[in-house]
């Protein structure tokens, strides 16, 4: 069975070389699968180049202990992003965090095609859509786990982790490393420490600098709409809960035929997940609307048939998934931006809450150094705690010195003869 799938993927990849439109490459019989490999990233690059007025892209690279990763980020913004990024409603979407969930990156391409007006949402009026899009900056990470995806494309269809066996949705710092009784390292290896993986470092840095209003982490394996938290059986409360619940209920009614599971990841999925991206985005980056969407799953599939468990295998399901979930995300864009005023009016409060702790700052700083100098800086990892302590001491002594300096100046001022009295 496995080698059959391997050959099938190889066959699909060889078929990709032709230039027929992307979407379905169906064979003559029912065993033929959706092709979802290989040139997706090239196709996204070509799309971006066709629409320089709306789309731009960058590739961010990082390395840790000889393991390198790169993440492509596509930005949608009408007009000059330099002038608008801060004043607009900001959305950050990630796809393909788990290698085997190929359909999620297909959805990224669909979203970008709709944004560039090469494809259209059947149920949405373009004029009203444009008035929404005018207020947004959307950053799309089409394939967060490129190295893991390569493993899947080379035949390891059950691989969800990155290129060196770490689960990128367990490598974040909120409740990192805690293991449940049914912990399976093949599935959930959290890495050597929080942010040990270059992919996670890249997304964290991007999220902190972009400071989004909405984060959606798109996965497959089931159909569900999750809000925080993943690491405990609880949701946030008060206004943040109401805001997120309202959005999820709307998406469930409009695009999920009310059958999607809604709730906290930890409370709904049947297991707790520690060190996830969405918990970090909500708790540390303070993204007011942070979701994990699970867009497709086949519970009847054999647990050995990962392709079928995580991805649609026929044309009609493939199209249904992409149509329903692109509409769902555009509903989030539209409804989410209605909250812009409300979030802006709370900005002064959230700004106070947004002070990143010195540990967070130092992690970011040292991460940058490590990336720049590679292996030479590995020793810093061992001494991270000590460096933090020295840094705190340094800050404390600087404050003391400043205090002494200021008190000397004020003494000197009082002893100086008064030359003239300046009116205000
Ligand atoms: Zn996943």
Automatic annotation (TrEMBL):
Residue ranges crossing the lipid bilayer per the database entry: 389-406
CDD domains assigned: M14-CPA-like (cd06227)
Domain Peptidase M14: 33-335
Active-site residues (renumbered): 294 (proton donor/acceptor)
Protein family membership: Belongs to the peptidase M14 family.
Entry's Gene Ontology cellular component terms: extracellular space
The name this protein goes by in its record: Carboxypeptidase A6
GO molecular function: metallocarboxypeptidase activity; zinc ion binding
Signal peptide: none
UniProt key word Membrane: yes
Cofactor: Zn(2+)
Gene3D superfamilies named in the record: Zn peptidases (3.40.630.10)
């Amino acid at each position: 069975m496995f080698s059959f799938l391997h050959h099938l993927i190889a066959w699909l990849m060889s078929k990709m070389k032709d230039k027929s439109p992307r979407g379905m490459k169906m064979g003559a019989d029912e065993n033929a699968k959706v092709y979802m490999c290989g040139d997706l990233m090239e196709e996204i690059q070509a799309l971006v180049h066709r629409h320089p007025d709306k789309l731009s892209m960058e590739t961010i690279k990082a390395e840790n202990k000889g393991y390198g990763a790169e993440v492509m980020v596509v930005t949608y913004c009408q007009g000059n992003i330099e002038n608008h990024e801060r004043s607009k409603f900001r959305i950050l979407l990630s796809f393909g965090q788990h290698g085997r969930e190929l359909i999620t990156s297909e959805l990224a391409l669909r979203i970008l095609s709709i944004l560039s007006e090469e494809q259209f949402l059947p149920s949405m009026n373009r004029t009203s859509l444009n008035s929404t899009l005018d207020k947004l900056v959307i950053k799309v990470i089409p394939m967060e786990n490129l190295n893991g995806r390569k493993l899947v494309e080379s035949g390891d269809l059950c691989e969800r982790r990155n290129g060196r066996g770490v689960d990128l949705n367990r490598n974040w710092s909120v409740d990192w490393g805690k293991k449940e009784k049914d912990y399976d390292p093949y599935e959930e290896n959290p890495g050597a420490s929080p942010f040990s993986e270059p992919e996670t470092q890249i997304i964290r840095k991007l999220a902190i600098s972009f400071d989004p209003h909405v984060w959606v982490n798109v996965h497959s394996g089931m159909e569900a709409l999750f809000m925080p938290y993943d690491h405990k059986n609880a949701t946030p409360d008060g206004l943040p809960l109401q805001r997120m619940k309202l959005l999820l209920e709307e998406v469930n009614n409009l695009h999920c035929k009310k059958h999607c599971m809604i709730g906290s990841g930890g409370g709904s999925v049947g297991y707790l997940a520690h060190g996830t991206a969405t918990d970090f985005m909500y708790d540390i980056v303070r993204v007011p609307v942070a979701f994990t969407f699970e867009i497709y799953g086949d519970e009847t599939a054999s647990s050995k048939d990962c392709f079928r468990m995580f991805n649609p295998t026929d044309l009609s399901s493939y199209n249904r998934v992409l149509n329903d979930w692109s509409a769902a995300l555009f509903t989030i864009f539209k409804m989410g931006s209605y909250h812009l005023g409300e979030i802006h009016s709370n900005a002064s409060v959230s700004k106070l809450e947004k002070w990143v702790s010195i540990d967070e700052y130092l992690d970011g700083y040292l991460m940058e150094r490590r990336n720049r100098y590679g292996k030479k800086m590995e020793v810093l990892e061992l001494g991270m705690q000590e460096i933090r302590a020295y840094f705190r001491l340094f800050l404390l002594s600087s404050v003391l010195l400043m205090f002494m300096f200021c008190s000397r100046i004020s003494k000197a001022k009082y002893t100086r003869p008064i030359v003239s009295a300046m009116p205000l």
